C-alpha cells in the first residue's frame, strides 16, 4: 500500500510539473506573438534582389528567402519552419506573391505560423529598401 501511495504521489508531482511547463510555454508564446515586428513596406522602394527574413517565437521559427524583381515579389521560399501543426500556413506565401504584399489573411487553424511567416517576409522586404 505504501508503494502505491508513493507511486501515485510521484505521478501527481510529474503531472503538476508538466502542467506548469505547458502554462509557462503558453505564456512565453503569447508574449512572443505580441512582440513580432511587421514592417510597413512600400514595394516601389524595394530594389531587385534576394532577401532573407527571420522571425521566431517560443514555439515557431521561420526563415524565408524573398525574391523581388521590378518591385514585385516573384518568389518566397520558406527555408525553415519549425512548427507544431502550422505547416498549412505555408500556403500564404502564394497569396503574398499574388498580392505583392506580406499583409494577407492568415490560415485558419494555423494563426501563429501565419503571423510568424508574415513577420519574416516583412523583415526580408525591409532589407531591400534603399
From TrEMBL:
Cellular compartments per GO CC = membrane
Query: Which domain of life does the UniProt lineage start with?
Result: Bacteria
Q: Keyword annotations for this protein?
A: Membrane, Transmembrane, Transmembrane helix
Transmembrane feature ranges: 6-26
**The FMN-binding domain covers which part of the protein?**
53-128
The reply to whether Lipid metabolism figures as a keyword in the UniProt entry is no
GO function term, MF aspect, one: FMN binding
Any Pfam family matching the protein: FMN_bind
Q: Which InterPro entries match?
A: FMN-bd (IPR007329)
Q: Does the keyword NAD apply?
A: no
Query: What's the protein called, per UniProt?
Result: FMN-binding protein
